[in-house]
Amino acid sequence: MDFFFVDYRDPIAGLIVLVALVFVVALSHFFYRIFANKDEKQQLENFVKKFEIDSSHKNLLRSSNFDINTLLFLASVFTKSGEFEKASEIYLIALEKTKDKNQREKIFLDLARLYFKAGFLERSKESLMQCLSIRARNKEALKLLKTVFIKLKLYNEVLNILESLSELGEDSKDEINFITILNMHEKSIPNEKKNFVNLDYSDASKRFLYQYYNIYEKQELINIIDLLYFKKELVDDEKFDEFFYALGLKQPDENYDFKDKHLKMLYILKKAKFKAKLDFSYLCTSCKSHMPLFFYHCPLCYEFGKCMILYEVKSDEED
Fold this sequence. Notes:
Layout: H1 11-51, H2 58-63, H3 68-80, H4 84-97, H5 101-118, H6 121-134, H7 139-151, H8 155-167, H9 173-187, H10 192-196, H11 203-213, H12 221-231, H13 241-247, H14 261-271, E1 276-284, E2 290-291, E3 307-315
Antiparallel strand pairs: 1-2, 1-3
Helix pairs in contact: 1-4, 3-4, 4-5, 5-6, 5-7, 6-7, 7-8, 8-9, 9-11, 13-14
């Protein structure tokens, strides 16, 4: 037992033990890297085999002297022209040719975007998982994976991704709140109205609750003006009175002065017995795209809570 106490240990023996420990650690690390690289290579081969496409150009590209940048450029050209099969084939060949982890991370992300654009959500998900296995803090990959999970209606996974993005500095509170409500809605949880009461509502969440559960929470008219217009329901909120005057659901005072020009025009036309209506369109304030229907996540840029409701007065005369 004296061997384990410094007072009784021979300094030379201690040095030998230390050198031996360093040697064992170094040797263990060496073998670990060999097996880790072998396992990584096997995973990559399995991934490539899983998604590769038989093509007469495949062997030609594999045997060519094209560098990675040239292959990636070719893949991007095919992607932009909509030739997704050729583009994915080149990306897979590029994965086989490179050993650089940063390049592999980029290729997996580009491949995931391609699969997502082509509508192959499961393939996109697997590519993103490979990308995140190289660098877990890749925000672009996490955001795209969040969108993939939303489309697949895997809302628990979406919440996990949003928590990760929040830890990386993204403001995800409102989206977490909305996805929580959406998850409860999809699962049809009993007494969901009672459960909703405990949540901190965002504008999107308030709209969703009014749209699907007729639960009204105090909010701005512009957030639900289209829903109110089509439902033709009165809401106990004085801020909405002008809107209800325009629709004829309430009567204004004789000298009431409208603040909204569109609602004033609608009121005057209806009072004069003209057939008029409100026509709605929707603008993403992030990518500036116009849509015919309301969205919580933009269909083009996939940003959350960026939908601006636009409205104008139009003739309601039947053709």
